[in-house]
Amino acid sequence: MSQVISTSGPTLVIDDMTVLIFGASGDLTARKLIPALFRLHHDGFLSEKSAVIGVARREKSHETFRDEMRKAVTEFGRGKKVTDESWPKFANQLFYVQHDINDNADAENLRLQVEKIEQGLGLSGRRLAYLATAPELFLPSVESLHAAKMVPPAEERDKLRVVVEKPFGQDLESSLELNKALRRILHESQIYRIDHYLGKETVQNILLFRFGNAIFEPLFNRNHIDHIEITTAESQGIEGGRGGYYDQSGGALRDVLQNHVLQLLCLIAMEPPALFEAEYIRNEKLKVLQALAPGRSGPVSEWAVAGQYAAAAINGKRVKAYLDEDRIAPDSRRETFVAVEARIDNWRWAGVPFYMRTGKRMPARVTEIAVTFKLPPLNLFTTIECDGNLCGLAETRPNTLLFRIQPKESIRVSFSAKRPGMQYQVQPVDMEFDYSNFEIDLPEAYERLLLDAMRGDSTLFTRSDELEAAWKFCEPMLQAWSSPDHHPELYPAGTWGPRSAHELLQRTGRKWRNPGGTQVEGAKAAALGEG
Ligand code: BG6
């Protein structure tokens, strides 16, 4: 990340690059990858000397693929819309190759097709292969590249990089296995394990905020911080078509906590790296994960809660239970919510609880990190809090620092001020930096990450040892929750999770921030007593 991207235009243009997308018929390709590549091309980051090749099993012409992708970019693309002028420039570099990943006899054909396209554009065969397939096809895709003789020898390693989507394994063992199998063909430096949260603008800003300013970092430790909360809440349930996968191999722990939430934890808790470069940053993140431990000793139920949403009426409208969603087993015990109390056993954080939670069908779509500071040692003033025109006495509130990752990206500091008047009364007030002040349309996470992978910058990708440490932390929960005796605790759709999640904090006199957000904000959810 040593390069600087100025807001006036790209400083580094990707030239002579072939992007191969395995899984070109899938949702990810249409919703995220092609719109991101179109935008990079449009903004001048991806030069005319590059090719994007969709690879999938179905027979399809280049033209059909281009038409499908034009529709996808029109529907899902950010900002600048597809026009008759902008699209053909990109479409000229967009191709489709039919290939059956499971049929190695077909591999030779894959190479020949790709080479033909490259020759036509004068490309030298520097490639980025993006595995946007179902997880069970990650390894076969790489084996297919190998069988096609498209994996370069060690001295030319840099000519092929492979981006692997999540989930990278289902647990520690399967993740280690996948890693081992990939490493038989590829070198670690060629493997880019993607976590799209790291591509979000506001997530990257956590490091800049912490290590680019002098005023907050001296307070970022056990002496001044009471606790830290990380919330990744979604108001939607299980999106159409995802039920089977989510129910069999997903769940809130594997799907979001193990990757996105733990990555946020690393950024908020890590030590400053000696240099702002990939290996230095990843070393510091790894140390956080290695020091991560359950917040309490004893069984998993002492420090982690699994929940599942039940049917409810949200603003008078009935919302299904998880069990009634499409392609969910009627007796499924899969968790759609997880809350964890953890600690980081190091000098900086000893004794500071970290509370993390994520869930589907919550009251709002919101991701934030809330840092709560300790109270002043002596409470000298009366605190007044106002709600509209109504003001009353309240408990003294601690200072908080809030990183709002999405939506309405912002950073907010809450502190106490004197309420105007003849008495010394405290009123909590906020100082807020709103991202919209930049008046820049924030780039999509996939734009940033694709560009980095093409440049060979692995800073925002997860290294294998980080992944291993993250799975290790999750392993006791995975094991406890796979027992036939375990049942997730139900919570009505549209609420902030099951009762036990609140009790995790209540037992120490703390409580979760219940942040606002989009969609069902302020909604009243009522349990329907079913599901
Ligand atoms: C994905 C999960 O990784 O992240 C989804 O598989 C989840 O279940 C999504 O909905 C959330 O991402 P975002 O960017 O919408 O917060």
Polypeptide structure, described:
There is one protein chain. This protein has 531 residues and is of the alpha/beta class. It contains 13 helices and 21 strands. The protein has helices spanning 27-42, 62-76, 86-91, 107-121, 138-147, 172-183, 201-211, 243-249, 252-269, 278-291, 445-455, 464-482, 499-506; strands spanning 17-22, 50-56, 94-98, 127-131, 160-164, 191-193, 225-233, 292-294, 304-310, 312-314, 317-319, 337-344, 354-359, 366-373, 382-387, 390-394, 400-406, 410-418, 425-434, 489-492, 525-527. Strands 7, 8, 9, 12, 13, 14, 15, 16, 17, 18, 19 and 20 form a twelve-stranded mixed β-sheet that branches. A six-stranded parallel β-sheet has the order 3-2-1-4-5-6. Helix 4 packs across helix 5 (138-147) and helix 10 (278-291) packs parallel to helix 12 (464-482). The radius of gyration is 25 Å and the shape is globular. The two termini are 48 Å apart. Residues 1-10 and 517-525 have low confidence and may be disordered. It binds 6-O-phosphono-beta-D-glucopyranose (BG6). 6-O-phosphono-beta-D-glucopyranose binds at residues 234, 255-256, 367. Residues 234, 255-256, 367 line the site of 6-O-phosphono-beta-D-glucopyranose (BG6).
